[in-house]
Amino acid sequence: MSRKIAAYMHVLTVSEEARAEFHQNKAGAMTEFGLSAQEQEIVLSDDHARIRAAVAATDAALAAVMVITTIPITTNPPPPPPTGH
Question: What is the value of pTM for the model shown?
Answer without folding.
Answer: 0.73
